[in-house]
């Protein structure tokens, strides 16, 4: 029996790139759609208005890694390239723990070495939502707890894929580590963002990170919360995952 092109492609992706999830082309609402108590009083700081306005975005199909890049995967990259390791490398955790203390250039270089790239901010949010438009978390609207995500702890990152995946089969898009994206940050970018495949400003001082991490409160691990840091920042709560345009066959 003949199969639809999308289903054939998805099947081939699953067989040939089990570490990546196919995110189908489609439209979604990007940004915060819900008011907060501070909004209602008019006291919400301008610095926290960068996730407005919510707006429609169309994204072409792409593939994204199901987990954040781990220490084990990053070790292979270091061995192949001779790149300087993160400063904690002598006391690094198990291979299945997501790598951290990597700056934007480190993440960009790893993804290029792997034949991939960093996801755009819009791609990241599309993947994080798991096909649930308008919700606050990858699993929906229920408040986060210790069975869904790693957050509000002092223990550091834990094993990848410890928590259930979202509707697209992607793990740890809330909590664990904040993740580098390809985009430069601009506070009012959403007001002028193109509808189709936005890639962020052409230049900037900061890069966008998404998803929140292990030390963050629930309000910072939502699918729409935006944060920004200098590209040379290396901290224990920032990691990354890679993406590839279209269907992945590697």
Rg measurement, Å: 18 Å
What's the architecture in CATH terms? Alpha-Beta Complex
Relative strand content: 15-25%
Record field, number of beta strands: 9
Task: Name the CATH superfamily assignment.
Answer: paralog of FGE (formylglycine-generating enzyme)
Unreliable residue runs = 1-16
Main sheet overview: 4 strands, mixed
**Strand-pairing-aware structural class:** alpha+beta
- Counting DSSP H or I runs of 4 or more residues, the number of helices is 5
- How many domains in all? 1
- Percent of residues in helices comes to 10-25%
Question: What tags apply to this protein structure?
Answer:
single chain; alpha+beta; paralog of FGE (formylglycine-generating enzyme); 5 helices; 19% helix; disordered N terminus
Q: Can you walk through the features of this model?
A:
The protein is α+β, with helices and mostly antiparallel strands and 250 residues long. It has a single domain, classed as paralog of FGE (formylglycine-generating enzyme). Helix content is 19%, strand content 15%. The protein is built from five helices and nine strands; from the N terminus they run αββαββαααβββββ. It has helices at 5-16, 37-41, 71-81, 104-113, 121-129, and strands at residues 20-23, 26-30, 55-59, 62-65, 178-184, 207-210, 226-229, 238-239, 243-245. The strands form three sheets. Strands 7-6-5-8 form a four-stranded mixed β-sheet. Residues 1-16 have low confidence and may be disordered.
